[in-house]
Amino acid sequence: MMMRRPEEECGIFGVFNHPEASNLTYLGLYALQHRGQESCGIVSSDGSTLHAHKSMGLVADVFGNPEIFKTLPGRSAIGHVRYSTTGSSVIKNVQPINVDYSRGSIAIAHNGNIVNAQIIKDELEAYGSIFQTTMDTEIIVHLLATSKQNSLLDRITDALTRIQGAYCLLFLTESRMVAVRDPNGFRPLCLGRQGSAYVVASESCALDLIDAEFIREIEPGEVIVIDKNGLTSFFPLKKVQPTPCIFEFVYFARPDSHIFGKNVYQVRKEQGRQLAREHKVDADIVIPIPDSGVPAALGYAEESGIPFELGLIRNHYVGRTFIEPQQAIRHFGVKIKLNPVREVLKGKRVVVIDDSIVRGTTSRKIVKMIRNAGAAEVHVRISSPPTSYPCYYGIDTPNRKELISSSHSIDEIRRYITADSLGYLSEEGLMSTVGAENAGFCTACFTGGYPVKFPRLMDQDEPQMGLFEKETAEQ
């Protein structure tokens, strides 16, 4: 089994008015691959017809044949990379969704999660709608098709007034592209320009790859329409206090991206510095869990004065699945991805920096691996508060009973993962790294305070007690 972490649902990318729109979209998706590795797709417009190519797999595999781009002509395109949180991982759920209906053709790419999706779906099916996928995104298609409004903007606005939750959306028709960010601004979305073309992307790192100029972030609640007349911005939805996801800074976004007004790398490095202020320890080296722990580990090392080392090396060529040998190898799933450098670790008091602990099983295996490599002490430091609640806004986290911090104290977790000490960054410390002016971040995964309420609680399970007691016997 692979190392289990929270997964981001999707990344979206769109280009309007460029002669190589589909090729640029492919490159943009390549830069956003970290946001979803199950499937990907591109829909292009040649001005009169929409063309699509999508499949299960990584971007480089799905679009590895240059001949594919001949089937995606036109000066506009939108693309999508997906990790499923709503709907199963099958070909029918690959985005963008593209349909023909009474008002023409339209394609939709969605990043996020609609929390009232099931209620709307039940209503639509009661009036005869037939759904082809199990994704919440398809609900938007049906809302557009059944809207009584005439213009595309009004139909989109009509649909948006019905849905609740997290959504960044790209719509593509024969003649225009529309970008939408939900009023809470849970997920990042930015606007750029490449020559005379406009570009929209989940993260700014995708703009960098195609040499596009970063214009600005699309604001929470903003709807942007791009057509032959240029760009027009609207704010048709009720204004609320934005609550962008703090975990984008902790783990999901690429370190070279600029989101929510900050550079991700600098924020993560400051998280490490703050972690060192809050949880000092006498040690010989600081090592990260690669790759997400590297910036925080650098910050911890700088603030503490303890040397930074690469004590674990990551194999970057591990796919999503692999065949395990018939003769069992202990901790195989972790070992295939990470390998300790014994010469760095032997006899050392080691501070290990990671971004989060979810179930605790992977952390436990890593600590034991470091000890087996000869470390004298292992001190674990986490650059975020304990993750005690699931996310309902587009991140695939386990339900609450599977989150170890929901039912166990920090000292119980320390003993379970077999560390000499364990320290988490405080919520106040985390917020200080993004600036006091950004106090409106969503921290529901730490606090259980959900900024958008659901029609009914999606996760009724109480935290599962006894995980520590059940598995400690393995020590």
Automatic annotation (TrEMBL):
[4Fe-4S] cluster binds at residues 245, 391, 442, 445. CDD domains: GPATase_N, PRTases_typeI. GO terms for molecular function: amidophosphoribosyltransferase activity. Pfam families: GATase_7, Pribosyltran. Residues 10-229 form the Glutamine amidotransferase type-2 domain. Keywords: 4Fe-4S, Glutamine amidotransferase, Glycosyltransferase, Iron, Iron-sulfur, Magnesium, Metal-binding, Purine biosynthesis, Transferase. It catalyses: 5-phospho-beta-D-ribosylamine + L-glutamate + diphosphate = 5-phospho-alpha-D-ribose 1-diphosphate + L-glutamine + H2O. Its EC number is 2.4.2.14. Mg(2+) binds at residues 292, 354-355. The active site is at residue 10. The keyword Chaperone does not apply. InterPro entries: GATase_2_dom, PRTase_dom, PurF, PurF_N. Binds 1 Mg(2+) ion per subunit. Binds 1 [4Fe-4S] cluster per subunit. Pathway: Purine metabolism; IMP biosynthesis via de novo pathway; N(1)-(5-phospho-D-ribosyl)glycinamide from 5-phospho-alpha-D-ribose 1-diphosphate: step 1/2. Its cofactor is Mg(2+); [4Fe-4S] cluster. NCBIfam families: purF (TIGR01134). Catalyzes the formation of phosphoribosylamine from phosphoribosylpyrophosphate (PRPP) and glutamine. In the C-terminal section; belongs to the purine/pyrimidine phosphoribosyltransferase family. This is Amidophosphoribosyltransferase. The lineage of its organism: Bacteria, Pseudomonadati, Thermodesulfobacteriota, Desulfuromonadia, Geobacterales.
